[in-house]
Amino acid sequence: DAKTTQPPSMDCAEGRAANLPCNHSTISGNEYVYWYRQIHSQGPQYIIHGLKNNETNEMASLIITEDRKSSTLILPHATLRDTAVYYCIVRVYNNAGNMLTFGGGTRLMVKP
Amino acid sequence: DSGVTQTPKHLITATGQRVTLRCSPRSGDLSVYWYQQSLDQGLQFLIHYYNGEERAKGNILERFSAQQFPDLHSELNLSSLELGDSALYFCASSGGVGEQFFGPGTRLTVL
Q1: CA separation for the pair B87, B110 (Å, rounded)
Q2: What b/e sequence results for A88-98 when a residue is b if at least 16 CB atoms lie within 10 Å of its CB, and e otherwise?
Q3: Does the beta-carbon distance from A99 to B101 stay under 8 Å?
């Protein structure tokens, strides 16, 4: 699986959009970009994933650059409950060995 | 609530002991994954079971073993425990090749 690079920490004001970047310059054509988050010591929570098109769900939007070498997770109106560590993971979407490889992630602090 | 349950929530034991952690996947999910999260190592994949069969192994020590039963629940057995085994242990389930849903974890403290 391709390696990802994320900033170790970011701050965001409550109510503003949080934009979390991720670099994955060695991504292969069949690898998807996944985002998970972990609030305090809870189990990681799936947020969103995508291949090359931008994706949106009730939690967030995922913007993937045309060359697929980077992506941005957007939380449109961050709340204090969005304070968490956000993990960007790149992996193949198939049946063989679907483990997730977590890096250091970005610690997002949402401030009042 | 992810639908994945883990028991116990907390476990305190002594070095050299053996413990069993239990995981019940979401209804209908055939895959169970185990992960370990320690302060210095971050979240690490241990092992994956699919419908009772081992599918992949990660950084799992030989002192650790797991199995998935016919009712699809899974158990992670940790033996000859050492101080360094103190960590959060998460299991996750998935229905196929999609996203994984994590349980609340078991916090293991080895004294």
Answers
A1: 9
A2: bbbbeeeeeeb
A3: no
Query: In the numeric block, which tokens belong to residue B107?
Result: 């916090």
Bridge partner residues of B57 (DSSP): B47
Q: How many Å apart are CA A82 and CA A80, to the nearest integer?
A: 5
- Got the DSSP string for A40-89? TTSPPEEEEEESSS-EE-SS-EEEE-TTSSEEEEEETT--GGG-EEEEEE
R_g of chain A, CA atoms, integer Å:
13
Contact list in A for residue B5 (CB cut-off 8 A) is: none
| Chain B residues in contact with chain A using a Cβ-Cβ cutoff of 8 Å | 2, 4, 31, 33, 35, 42-45, 48, 55-56, 58, 88, 90, 92, 94, 96-97, 99-105, 107
Q: What is the pLDDT along chain A (112 residues), one digit of tens a residue?
A: 668 999 999 999 999 999 999 999 999 888 899 999 999 989 999 999 999 989 999 999 999 999 999 999 999 999 999 999 999 999 877 655 578 889 999 999 999 9
**What residues contact A82, with CB distance under 8 A and at least 6 apart?**
A12, A18, A37, A75, A108, A110
Q: How far is CA A109 from CA A13, A15, A38, A40, B42, in A?
A: 8, 13, 12, 11, 19
CA A76/CA A1 separation, integer angstroms: 29
For the stretch B10-58, pLDDT in tens is 999 999 999 999 999 999 999 999 999 998 778 999 999 999 999 999 9
